[in-house]
Amino acid sequence: MCHRSLLKRTRLRDGRLKVLVAGFITIDTIQLPMRQIISVGGPPSYAGLVCSRFGNEVTPLTKVGNDFPDEQAIWLARNGIVLRASDRSLTRPTTRFKITNSPGERMLILASRCEDLSVSQIPPDTRFNAALVSPLAGEVSTSLLTEISARSDFSFLDPQGFVRSFDPDGRVSTSPLRERSILSKVDAVKMDRKEAEMLTGRSDPRQALEKLASIGVRKAIVTQGAETCHVLDGTRIYEVQVPKAPVVDTTGAGDILSGATISWYLKTRDFLRSACFGIAASSLSLHMLALSKIDLPMSVDETALRLFSMASPVAAL
Question: CB under 8 Å to 125, separation ≥6 — which residues?
């Protein structure tokens, strides 16, 4: 059966589009200047819940241990993120991070790591309208990424887990991408400035996007915290201003951006407009703690429209 027919059948079955989110669900200990909080985290939580809020049917592809709290699994299920038996590890604990947020600095320490994700976890005979692949600690293999992309109409990569290294104490740093072939397997890439440098060897966001375009990538976003974002859409690179917003907690903000961008792209098929929506959603969530970010304010639509109207092309490829 052709992909278009299968996509139509998927939509008609229950009226919702299907989104896969691959990456660890975590338990995060977040140290803020004045307090410490413990929260469920990871891309299937932040990005998956945003996609679910948009009415999509979300399938998490993840691993958690038997130490994952039942009450949290129930809460996730009630909000559209259902953990299956195949998502449970019988031998390894849930992935845990210690995250320290302070002005101008963010430090991550990997405290425990669950087992790798596997192809066998992908529901059989299911095609997805979109997939977010966002590993945190090398849990997604190249072969799994390839299979997810083959089973998805739009594959969106956050490469953070492909460019991370961990010292003996679990401290996270970045390192150059080893498997460059992954970039040819996806439709879009979202990265921060440091990750873009690890992928391309270019520290300037515009030059990094030009490098990605030269190897066939046609949709990409480079973020720089509160500074200007750069968006590659087809043969043009755009600058998008980031809204000024108070910052309380940055945890999950990148996943909010990914989930919002994917959800809007499924509605509009306009990547630049969708990236502006994701940037607006992420920025306006920064005053909220942990998973409270998923409740996007009503002002996101207006802010996204303003960003889109002001987006300026800076290069034609």
Answer: none
d(CA 65, CA 25): 10
> pLDDT tens, 208-249?
999 999 999 999 999 999 999 999 999 999 999 999 999 999
Q: Rg (Cα) of the chain, in Å, rounded?
A: 18
What domain range includes position 160? 3-316
The domain that holds 290 is classified in CATH as 3.40.1190.20
pLDDT tens-digit series, residues 27-61? 999 999 889 999 999 999 999 999 999 999 999 99
Domain count of the fold of the chain: 1
Q: Provide the edge-to-edge strand list for the sheet that holds 227-233.
A: 57-61, 18-22, 130-133, 155-157, 188-192, 219-224, 227-233, 236-240, 312-316
Q: What is the pTM of this model?
A: 0.93
- Nearby residues of 233 by Cβ (< 8 Å), 6 or more positions away: 218, 219, 271, 272, 275
